[in-house]
Amino acid sequence: MGHSQAAAANAPGLSRFGEFFHTIDGKPESSGAHFDVINPSTGQPFARCPDASRAQLDSAVAAARRAFVPWRELSFAQRREYLLKLGQALKESIEELAPLLTSEQGKPLARAREELNRAVAQFDLLSRIEIKPEVLRDDAQGRTELHYRPLGVVGAITPWNVPIVLAVPKITQALYVGDTVVVKPSPYTPLTTLKLGELAQRVLPPGVLNVVAGGNDLGQWITEHPGIDKISFTGSVATGKRVLASAAGTLKRVTLELGGNDAAIVLDDVKPAQVAPRLFQAAFVNSGQVCMAIKRLYVHDSIYDAMCDELAALARKARVGDGFDPDVTMGPVQNKMQYERVLGILEDTRQTGARILTGGQARPGDGYFIEPTIVADIAEGTRLVDEEPFGPVLPVIRYTDVDDAIRRANDTRFGLGGSIWTNDLERGEALASRLEAGTTWVNQHVGTEPGVPFGGCKESGLGREYSELGLKGYMEAQVVKVARAG
């Protein structure tokens, strides 16, 4: 046993959640190697996760390929029934899994329960969407239809910020349309997803859903694997580019939902006291670790100081701490690497002369806690504004001309989401349509719906998840032409 394995084995409370296994061909499997999973509220290992070998990945892919033909032959309704059973099994396990999710991700326990409940609903809602052949031509010469057929085996690679609510839609969309799946969760938060795989062993045919955990090598093996037909990846822009390059060797279909640096523009006709709570929630949800959270807040000069005051007051009221404390509203940054990156951005911010109104530093003690931070008098050309911090930090940027604010909001390589905040809804809609982003809102920010496509433009991604459009991304278009007799 290596040093880190020994430390994990001796960690207090390690046995609370028992042992963890991959799911391969409907059966649990361990591995010869393991890695520590860190509780971000303590910075210490609390569990050990099996580290899948290349041979185990090959077994999982082979199982998915064997299961594919009988699975695709089922009707949409039959596949939906299986998904509803898996959703019910997850629902019945929420009280068991929520503490595990909080332990590995850090979010407050109530938010962990919310995430699991949202995932349960996705099994149902995403499998209600109809995919039907489209008639392109029907005349005396013949009939031409556009059909959609399952692709094959989908490799789903999921992130650490909301691991279950981002894994379940990939699983549901793929399985519902007739594909089979190999899921790789983030090595920072693999455990709840492994438990979801264990639930699947009880309700799905063997090989239909396989869950394997591991590090960067496993991700590379999946994206290169000739037995995988599509990659659905959610994560950073940098990693997404590597996924796309790796998948190119076999021309896999690829859906990428990548980072964002979402701008929200507040017009001069709103009252800061009324709008600030919604802006704060949209920026600091999950401690700012949401791809579509507000990352840049542009506020008109006439209400700028009042808005800064309101946001700073909300930040001071936020309760940061261990997710098992019922009074806590914000948990830690999920992992040490991200924690150090956010602290580095804050240090660079101090050098710019910007005003840190509140927060701006790590909380003393154990864990990866950073106080919610509001930064004023800052502009483009700084790391905090130009990059995606992905942490509890919000820059508030002054503007005087809304056309200039739109230009500045669009002057980025990101294009995931954006919003306009105003009492003039017609004007707000017109301005929102000018934001270069996959989703734009008026008087709201953050949130997805199963029936509405979601994804980014520019370097924020390729393709869409959710809705009929998203489901078809897990299928291959096929033209069927029938000539009339005679």
Automatic annotation (TrEMBL):
Gene Ontology molecular function terms on file: oxidoreductase activity, acting on the aldehyde or oxo group of donors, NAD or NADP as acceptor
Gene3D superfamilies: Aldehyde Dehydrogenase, Chain A, domain 1, Aldehyde Dehydrogenase, Chain A, domain 2
Record protein name field: Acyl-CoA reductase-like NAD-dependent aldehyde dehydrogenase
Active site residues according to the UniProt entry: E257
Limits of the Aldehyde dehydrogenase domain: 31-480
Family matches, as InterPro entries: Ald_DH/histidinol_DH (IPR016161), Ald_DH_C (IPR016163), Ald_DH_CS_CYS (IPR016160), Ald_DH_CS_GLU (IPR029510), Ald_DH_N (IPR016162), Aldehyde_DH_dom (IPR015590), LUC3-like (IPR044086)
Organism per entry: Pigmentiphaga kullae
Coiled-coil spans in chain: none
Keywords noted in UniProt: Oxidoreductase
One Pfam family of this chain: Aldedh
Homology family: Belongs to the aldehyde dehydrogenase family.
Oxidoreductase in keyword set: yes
